[in-house]
Amino acid sequence: MKKTFPAVETCSSIGRENDTVVADMDGTLLRGRSSFPYFSLVAFEAGGALRLLMVLLSAPLAGLLYYFVSESAGIQVLIFATYAGMKVSDIESVGRAVLPKFYSSDLHPESWRVFSACGKRCVLTANPRIMVEGFLKEFLGADIVLGTEIGTYKGRATGFVLSPGVLVDEQKAHALVKQFGDDNQPDIGLGDRSTDFAFMELCKESYIVPYNPEVKPVPNEKLPKPIVFHDGRLVQKPTPLMAILTLLWIPIGFLLACLRIAAGALLPMPLVYYAFWALGVRVIVKGNPPQAVKKASGQTGVLFICSHRTLLDPIFLSTALGRPIPAVTYSVSRLSEVISPIKTVRLSRDRATDASMIKKLLEEGDLAICPEGTTCREPFLLRFSAMFAELTDHLVPVAMVNKMSMFHGTTARGWKGMDPFYFFMNPSPVYEVTFLNKLPLELTCSSGKSSHEVANYIQRVIAATLSYECTAFTRKDKYRALAGNDGTVSEKPKQKGANKLMGC
After folding, report:
1. 182 exposed, middle or buried (CB, 10 Å; 0-12, 13-18, 19+)?
2. Which residues touch 85 (CB under 8 Å, ≥6 apart)?
3. Average pLDDT across the chain, whole number
4. DSSP string, 446-483
5. Among 252, 223, 247, which residue's Cα sits nearest to residue 234?
6. CA-to-CA distance for 181 and 139, rounded, in angstroms?
7. Single pTM value for the model
8. Rounded CA gap, 391 and 356, in Å?
9. Is 497 helix (H, G, I), strand (E, B) or coil?
10. What's the pLDDT band for 283 if we cut at 50, 70, 90?
11. Would you list the DSSP string of 286-333?
């Protein structure tokens, strides 16, 4: 006789503070029942396009085994294709920096309502534990994560599954008994398919999560923890169709990116705007940009205070103005310097040295700076460094925002020299540059305002323009979250300069 369970919508979430909940992941805590997109993410972000191709080629076999032989066999094929030979540290890095953004966007509202109401939370999943544990514990507050264990050798994954195998069906029940014991039944069990029934029957109450493609995920503002920082190159979840389109587009997109970069680097700046439009790059200019200061007037240049979305911000600022604007930056790769159509000057992070250099540059003309010190993809502004406010009263805030459909043009874990290429590999990327009003003299340091007051005011003005949220996060917070370091990379001394800092 087929076992039936009540739907999760009938489960009360009131007074569950002392209860223990055990939930499956795909199709239960997440709306989507397929883990293929997340294996594809790991494959691409940790192994590149060839690894993604390997996973795609193995997908038909995995599907046949999954639906017609056993769920376990199909998952083992995906695990081997994804992980064989991959560094364990790279898998952990993707699990920490890339997957949470995609998992959070697929959180099932009813399952989360019940799961979050319970005092002790356990997740029982067929997914490799190393892939999901970071998200489940840090973002969903899971106390215990029981998942499939994969073998390793000298710091690399073998692609094979350790005993007792893939956690499906009876293996989930055995893992649950091993964790809680025979006499300690969890209060609530949540699952979505017949292979979850074995562990659900061991719980005092059990509820099924019916498949409903129309159900909306938990909205961003109601997520248990907001996603401020995330990494990875792919913008969209790589479903099988999206993964195929991505692989087919990469060689075309790379050639297109080279053409776009060449146009920006070789053409006179007044023509770059039109060249970009002809090549599918949309540059939208809003507000009233100030006129260039004539050197003969003796007036110092304007300091453009830009929000930081990619290292291309100063280039698109120059494109919008029709003239090259030098930029000071905390970091830029050697390749990016070579192909840049504007002058870039590295900051040393020595306050006196940097202040002197910026003043000298302003005497020569206009200058751009991104005081956040690093990029942020989400609708948040990081803390603004206040030093710029002490150096000039001619401050023009600039709100920068971009739109990409396939690839992100920033990275914390990868090679930054590829950032411009990935941005321009998008079929039709968009950059919106909004010039705000020049800061009134009474709001500058000359009128008695502190540099921190000025910086915080400009941060709030830009945030209000973009409908973003101001934060106190810094570059160090970003790199600790995504790369496990503070963003500083020791490097051999160069002719002029100190250590290189991963600031973008």
Report:
1. exposed
2. 156, 157, 159
3. 92
4. GGT--HHHHHHHHHHHHHHHHT-EE----HHHHHHHHT
5. 247
6. 27
7. 0.91
8. 9
9. coil
10. very high
11. EE-PPPPPPGGGTPPPPEEEE--SSTTHHHHHHHHHTS---EEES---
